[in-house]
Write a structure and sequence with these properties.
5-stranded mixed sheet; 5 strands; alpha+beta; 33% strand
């Protein structure tokens, strides 16, 4: 191959490389522009992970907060409410089936281990959420830790007895990897049982 031919080959390869890079860049810009034109966040062109479930409805409500060093942002409030409801759903799933996948998505530390080991294969049970009223007791200045108090209406069933009770909880949640997770959950003594239904043999 002559020197001139070699130079032409190198020039052709460089041109192809530049065109390929330009095409990829234009395609990326077009995707972001399309997302923006439809009213979506451009970042969602790359990360489409919903943080708030659509079926929360009125399951979780907030009561008036005390005076906090930092006010809770509306988006943070919605994310915490969603994480709270999903954490309780995970507690129900573990108690009913023993499946522990996803426990570490909604719980962290010793509480995650406690939830994962709560299944009793000889006496599986269910935990149903009726309603939750949340109020913040603490919100860190960096927005990564929140203390909560909850008045929750919880249904429990083990196949022989159904109990619906109003219970008080203290909780601490951490913002970790973009997700709110429960670090601490403690039931306050003095829960009020609303309804107890005994079930006969099937």
């Amino acid at each position: 191959m002559t020197s001139r031919s070699a130079k032409r080959l190198v020039a052709a390869l460089v041109a192809v490389s530049v065109l390929a890079t330009l095409f990829v860049g234009l395609a990326t810009i077009g995707l972001v522009s399309l997302r923006s034109a439809t009213g979506a966040d451009p970042a969602s062109a790359f990360t489409a992970v919903p943080q708030v479930p659509e079926d929360i409805g009125e399951l979780v409500e907030w009561t008036e907060d005390p005076v906090l060093d930092r006010q809770i942002e509306p988006t943070t409030r919605r994310s915490i409410a969603a994480a709270w409801a999903r954490a309780w759903h995970r507690i129900d799933l573990v108690n009913r089936t023993g499946a522990v996948d996803g426990v570490d998505v909604w719980f962290v530390g010793p509480l995650a281990d406690q939830v994962a080991s709560s299944f009793d294969p000889e006496n599986p049970s269910s935990v149903s959420q009726q309603s939750h009223e949340l109020s913040a007791t603490f919100y860190s200045l960096d927005g990564s830790v929140i203390g909560l108090r909850s008045t929750s209406s919880i249904g429990r069933s083990n196949g022989l007895r159904d109990i619906v009770s109003t219970e008080e909880f203290e909780a601490v949640m951490l913002l970790s990897d973009g997700n709110w997770r429960m670090l601490h959950l403690k039931r306050i003594p003095g829960a009020v049982t609303v309804t107890t239904v005994e079930k006969g043999p099937s």
